[in-house]
Write a structure and sequence with these properties.
9 strands; 489 residues; single chain; five-stranded mixed β-sheet; 3 domains; alpha+beta; 43% helix; Immunoglobulin-like; 15 helices
């Protein structure tokens, strides 16, 4: 956190190389170095200590499984945050996630007077941050408290570097304006009736904080007020830090190294995919809800169908009794299955291959036995010597090939003296999930999406300079791999 010595980039490089070599000692050092910060970050996104612990565990597991993908090992710390964020977004999207059990705050050796002063500053910090949107607050938290630079934030958010720089700059400007307004409300609320009416309770809500900022910017009385400067790192240093559970260390290291947890690790690693060309995970995309294949029927026909089915069952049972089929000779065919019988599943005692995730996103219902007796009579014990029907042809048990992932084909463009031109991108050989990862020269571009095989799209690229002097060239890079040449001026 801000104010605490953070790991240097040479530590990132050394630890990343050790992880690639399979060094278990390096794994424990990675946990001891980064886990407290990552846990606090996950807890801030999930607001639950159980979910935060699970997200941290999966983050470390996925990092060890995918460390070979990272092309810049000196960016290990920011890369870990990107994995943690994707895991947190996946958990937030789960309807079965654990909620309502926040972690305790890390202990501080402060006196009662110091605690009271910190609480006052904490109300101020919460009120100032309330005026920002969610992405701005997260960017400020990552850059100030977690001390990550804009390149790391670009990979964490999955945004082009130019957009990330603009996001951080705007967030700092809005935070300064919100802090100025909050200080006026805290110290000079008696001088303006509007401020007094807005700030009856602290900390301020997001709606009240935004209204206060707009009021201060337009009020002639509040606009003349000067407030003492307060750097962002000092403002955010009073915010609570979630205390990481002591027992989590053993759980994470066991999940990462135990031989009987290999199936879990493969599933967790799959959740982190896909990655861009630099080895950073692409942002989480929610799974679209399954569309109903049939429209819901009205209750009338449904009740009628149930009544017909009941009538058929009654007639079938009566017919079987009349024919002597109900004497109990074949009752084992329709009786309940006994655990351990050859017809039912038997617990092998082996570890489960599915991951022990506290927030599963998909729950498949277990198959249940049908309690409706078969409409056809039981087959005869003595088979007929001359079958009347041909046996069914053998079914093809070969599974279809999984859909192939395609590659991205990009075509450059020429801008001339115009202010923009359009790059054409096409998915070749399969579907492609793409995004703009950066631009060189005096160019800016952005965007992301998914293309089906053969589908094309246009990406607008603009020049950032005002006056053209001679012919210039630049490029726009895409994920997965691809770069478009752009000439301008």
């Amino acid at each position: 956190m801000a104010g605490e010595p953070g790991p240097e980039q040479n530590d990132d490089l050394r630890l990343a190389n050790s992880l690639r070599a399979g060094d278990v000692i390096a794994l424990t050092e990675v946990y001891d170095t980064y886990a407290p910060f990552l846990y606090d970050y996950c807890h801030g996104l999930l607001r639950d200590r159980v979910e935060a612990a699970g997200a941290l565990r999966n983050c470390v597991v996925a990092a060890r499984e995918h460390i070979d993908r990272l092309t810049e090992p000196d960016r290990l710390r920011g890369w870990l945050y990107s994995i943690a964020r994707k895991e947190c977004m996946r958990r937030r999207d789960s309807p079965n996630r654990h909620t309502g059990q926040e972690a305790p705050e890390a202990d501080d050796d402060l006196t009662d007077e110091q605690l009271a002063r910190r609480e006052e500053r904490r109300l101020l910090a919460h009120s100032a941050l309330a005026a920002l949107n969610g992405r701005q607050r997260e960017a400020i938290d990552l850059s100030v408290r977690h001390e990550l630079d804009e390149v790391d934030l670009s990979g964490i958010f999955g945004m082009p570097l130019e957009e990330t720089l603009a996001l951080v700059e705007r967030a700092r400007e809005d935070l300064a304006a919100a802090l100025h307004a909050a200080l006026i409300a805290q110290n000079h609320w008696k001088d303006c009736p509007s401020v007094s009416a807005l700030t009856e309770s602290w900390p301020l809500s997001p709606q009240t904080a935004a209204s206060l900022v707009r009021h201060v910017a337009s009020c002639p009385v509040c606009g003349e007020r000067e407030t003492p400067p307060l750097p962002a790192d000092r403002l955010l240093s009073v915010l609570p830090i979630a205390a990481i559970p002591a027992e989590l260390r053993l759980d994470v290291l066991t999940a990462t190294t135990a031989e009987d947890r290999a199936g879990n690790r493969r599933a967790i690693a799959a959740w982190t995919e896909p990655f861009d060309e630099y080895g950073w995970p692409l942002p989480y995309e929610p799974t679209p809800t399954r569309v109903r294949e049939r429209s819901p029927r009205r209750r009338g026909p449904l009740i009628g169908a149930v009544a017909v089915a009941v009538g058929v069952v009654v007639l079938s049972v009566g017919a079987m009794s009349a024919l002597g089929g109900g004497d109990g000779e074949n009752t084992s065919a329709t009786g309940p299955a006994v655990p351990g019988d050859s017809g039912g599943p038997v617990d092998s005692g082996r570890p489960e291959a599915t991951p022990t995730d506290p927030s599963p996103t998909v729950m498949s219902p277990s198959p249940t036995e049908s309690k409706t007796p078969s409409k056809s009579p039981s087959p005869s014990k003595t088979p007929s010597k001359t079958p009347t029907t041909q046996p069914p042809p053998p079914q093809n048990t070969v599974e279809p090939d999984p859909p192939r992932s395609g590659r991205l084909s990009v075509d450059g463009c020429r801008m001339g003296n115009d202010e923009s031109c359009t790059i054409r991108i096409t998915a070749v050989g399969g579907a492609v999930t793409w995004r703009v990862t950066g631009a060189s020269g005096e160019l800016s571009a952005g965007g992301s999406g998914r293309l089906s095989s053969g589908e094309s799209a246009g990406v607008t690229v603009r020049r950032t300079n005002v006056i053209c002097w001679g012919d210039k060239t630049g490029s726009v890079s895409f994920s997965p791999g691809g770069s478009a040449r752009v000439s301008y001026c």
